[in-house]
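Re: [help] complex structure
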Amino acid sequence: MSDETQTEARPKKLFIKTYGCQMNVYDSDRMADALAPHAYEPVQSAEDADLVVLNTCHIREKASEKVFSELGRLKEMRDLRRAEGSDLMIGVAGCVAQAEGEEIVRRQPAVNLVFGPQSYHRLPELLTRAHNGSQVVETEFPTEDKFAHLPAAKREVTLARGLTAFLTVQEGCDKFCSFCVVPYTRGAETSRPLEQVLSEARSLADGGVRELTLLGQNVNAYHGLDKAGRTVGLGELCYRLAEIPGIARIRYTTSHPLDMSEELIAAHRDLDALMPYLHLPVQSGSDRILKAMNRRHTTAEYLAVIERIKAARPDMALSGDFIVGFPGETDADFEQTLEIARLTGYASAFTFKYSIRPGTPGATMDNQVAEAVKVERLARLNAQIMGQTRDFAQSCVGRILPVLIEKPGRNPGQVGGRSPYLQAVHMEGPTRLIGQIIPVEIVAVGNNSLAGKIVTDAELKSASLSQSVANAVPA
Ligand code: SAH
Ligand code: SF4
Ligand code: F3S
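Output below.
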């Protein structure tokens, strides 16, 4: 055997650093899977890696700029290695790659390859080109179906990889909110065919996954084709996923208020597996600002959607996203944002200062809000949301919630899991319960978690009367 074959056989080490949203987390796993047959094995740090890929996020300026400082550090690492006779390959994937393309190699020439989210299935081929010495920049939106070429997500549930998994069902966005880069970085809205999604879900369930989170930039716009060429919405997809043995919980994110179809709301009414916790961003409580943001709905319409959802599923809780300081936002507009957050009773929310994104309509609006005003509004909104989150947690005390037991607890004899509302719950219990969904009475609220007590069958029967009360919408 020649030396060359031996070098070929030595597995190369891959480190992917993931920024941004859950879809990037999913994508990073798919990239690792695509490279596994080419003898790349994952490692936990850049120091140990032959190839480092930054899977980047472009959503706000800070997220984007972080990438360039990280690239600076990687270049230094590469130079040190070269001095010692070895090397480091550097790749940039994700939304900054898509948005900046060539600009990345101009700003940091040490980068070997730049590739956007629509070319992940071609990563092995792009790497070969980079290994042959060319600097690769690949940001086309190809016409073929990336998912048909990428290995489907598989999972063997282990201590390191849990009982929950992401599954991308839809990608891209056609909504063009005036602050947002996603339609430019992820491209037009596309949905994976129904069978592809079902078969990936089955393979995850076979590996022991109990909870699926369906992902999409606009996940409730899902419109995949079935085998007969019929279009299937997210509601129907949920009914089909709930039939898969082993899948006990389904979540989806992120939804747009305009795409909450009747069928999806009916799925919330009918399916125990569909968790009563919905991320439904409103961004602002002012109709004037919503219009400028091109969200295409009013606050009244948003509240009406929530009312329909809660009528179908009374124990539904909500989370949201907010942007403060969008161009033209006055104190009065901001007060309305505080007001809608209160009216909706969010159990939690992500809050952001408006960040100017080049190329979006918001960037050239002439009534930009001063940074100091944004900072102050963000602090006020955060304080209110924190209070709401605490109130929601408090309202869970005394309720019996189904908890997916996920891992051993902090102390021996304890286990930890998640409520339907994604709250961490700790309780006394044997580790053989891991993987099961157990009724747990919430007894106290901790800092970032709830304390619970496992309810026995007998207790559950005698509690069934109060349970219907406990499951009612928290005041
Ligand atoms: N598709 C989702 C949002 C995806 S981006 C939706 O329509 O709601 C996630 C969140 O980032 C957005 O909901 C928004 O609150 C925030 N965001 C997006 N662009 C932003 C910007 N330019 N500045 C600040 N926050 C932004
Ligand atoms: Fe961005 Fe969401 Fe608006 Fe699409 S719907 S443009 S992803 S904020
Ligand atoms: Fe960021 Fe792209 Fe996700 S911009 S939020 S990584 S879709």
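The pocket of iron/sulfur cluster (ligand 2) is lined by residues 173, 175-177, 180, 182-183, 217-218, 256 (CB under 6 Å).
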